[in-house]
C-alpha cells in the first residue's frame, strides 16, 4: 500500500517511523511519504493561508499550494489505469471514521491524507480533487483538534495494521474491540492473585467453551454499559439465547428485528 501525507508540519508525522507502522515501512509493506505543503508555495514568506471571504474568525488555507502539492503526489502525467487514489481530508466536519472505514481503506492501493490547519482548506480544492481522487472528508469524533496531523496518525495506524503482514498474528485482529460490533472482553495475566484480587476462576479452568461464553457475556455487559449506541446497532440474527439473556439483564430486548431498550415500545414489555 502507498500512503502520502501532505502537511505544513511534516515532523508531526515522525511518529510513523516507530513501532508496528515503522517496521511495516522498513519491510516494504507500507510505502509512506510525507510532503511539506510549504515546498509548493511560490512567495518569499511561503504563505499557505489567507483571510476568509465573507469575514469571520481565523484563516483559510489557500488553494494554489494544495493543488500543486496534490498534483505532485499524483505524479504529473496521465492518470494511471485502475482505481483512483483516495483523498482523506481530516476535518471535524467529516464523516466519522470507524473500524469499518479502516477495513475499507485497507483494501485500497493508494491513500493520500491532506492535513488542514486553521479554519480549513478552501472548498474549491476539495471540489477540484474529486476529478482525480475519491474524496473522503473524515472526522475522528465530535471534538475539535487544531489540525489534521494527530487525526492522520490515528487513521494511518488503524488502516496500516489491517494491511496483510503488518500485524504478526492476524488472530489478534479477530477478537479485538469492534471486530464484531462489540467492545473487547477484559483480559488478565499472571500472577493469578494480585493485591488480594484473583483472576476470574473460569479463566483458569481450561474449559474453552465456558471461557468463550464468559468472554462473550463480558463483551455484551460492557458494551451495554459503555456504548448503548453499539447495542442498538447489533443484528439480532447474530445473538443466541445466552446473548439475549445477558442483554435482557442489561435492559435490552429484541423487537421488530432490532435490539431496543426494554420498554421503548416493545410489545408486551413492562415499562419501568
Ligand atoms: Cl479529523 N480534524 C480536526 N481538525 N479535528 C477533529 C478531527 C479531525 N476529528 C475530530 N476532531
From TrEMBL:
List the GO terms this entry assigns under cellular component, sorted alphabetically: cytosol
Return the InterPro entries for the record: Alpha/beta_knot_MTases, tRNA_m1G_MeTrfase_C_sf, tRNA_m1G_MeTrfase_TrmD, tRNA_m1G_MTases_N, tRNA_MeTrfase_TRMD/TRM10
Keyword field: Cytoplasm, Methyltransferase, S-adenosyl-L-methionine, Transferase, tRNA processing
Q: What EC number(s) does its UniProt record assign?
A: 2.1.1.228
Q: Which domain of life is it from?
A: Bacteria
UniProt: S-adenosyl-L-methionine binding residues: 116, 140-145
Q: Where does the tRNA methyltransferase TRMD/TRM10-type domain start and stop, copy by copy?
A: 1-231
Which chemical reaction does it catalyze? guanosine(37) in tRNA + S-adenosyl-L-methionine = N(1)-methylguanosine(37) in tRNA + S-adenosyl-L-homocysteine + H(+)
| An example Gene Ontology molecular-function term | tRNA (guanine(37)-N1)-methyltransferase activity
The family database entries (NCBIfam families) matched by this protein are listed as: PRK00026.1, trmD
Q: What does this protein do?
A: Specifically methylates guanosine-37 in various tRNAs.
Q: How does it assemble?
A: Homodimer.
Give the PANTHER family listed for this entry: TRNA (GUANINE-N(1)-)-METHYLTRANSFERASE
Return the protein name.
tRNA (guanine-N(1)-)-methyltransferase
Gene name of the encoded protein: trmD
Amino acid at each position: 500500500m502507498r500512503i502520502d501525507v501532505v502537511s505544513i508540519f511534516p515532523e508531526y508525522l515522525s511518529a510513523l517511523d516507530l513501532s508496528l507502522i515503522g517496521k511495516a515501512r522498513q519491510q516494504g509493506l507500507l510505502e509512506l511519504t510525507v510532503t511539506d505543503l510549504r515546498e509548493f508555495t511560490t512567495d518569499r514568506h511561503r504563505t499557505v493561508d489567507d483571510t476568509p471571504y465573507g469575514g469571520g474568525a481565523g484563516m483559510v488555507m489557500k488553494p494554489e499550494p494544495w493543488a500543486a502539492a496534490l498534483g505532485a503526489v499524483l505524479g504529473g502525467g496521465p492518470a494511471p489505469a485502475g482505481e483512483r487514489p483516495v483523498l482523506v481530508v481530516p476535518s471535524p466536519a467529516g464523516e466519522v471514521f470507524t473500524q469499518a472505514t479502516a477495513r475499507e481503506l485497507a483494501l485500497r492501493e493508494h491513500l493520500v491524507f491532506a492535513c488542514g490547519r486553521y479554519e480549513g482548506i478552501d472548498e474549491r480544492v476539495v471540489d477540484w480533487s474529486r476529478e482525480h481522487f475519491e474524496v473522503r472528508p473524515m472526522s475522528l469524533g465530535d471534538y475539535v483538534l487544531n489540525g489534521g496531523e494527530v487525526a492522520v496518525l490515528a487513521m494511518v495506524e488503524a488502516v496500516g495494521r489491517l494491511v496483510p503482514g503488518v500485524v504478526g498474528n492476524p488472530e489478534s485482529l479477530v477478537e479485538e474491540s469492534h471486530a464484531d460490533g462489540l467492545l473487547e472482553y477484559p483480559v488478565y495475566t499472571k500472577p493469578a492473585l494480585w493485591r488480594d484480587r484473583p483472576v476470574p476462576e473460569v479463566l483458569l479452568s481450561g474449559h474453552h467453551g465456558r471461557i468463550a461464553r464468559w468472554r462473550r457475556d463480558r463483551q455484551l455487559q460492557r458494551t451495554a454499559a459503555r456504548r448503548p449506541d453499539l447495542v442498538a446497532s447489533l443484528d439480532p440474527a447474530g445473538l443466541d439465547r445466552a446473548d439475549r439473556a445477558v442483554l435482557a439483564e442489561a435492559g435490552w430486548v429484541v423487537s421488530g428485528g432490532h435490539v431496543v431498550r426494554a420498554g421503548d415500545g416493545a410489545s408486551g414489555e413492562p415499562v419501568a
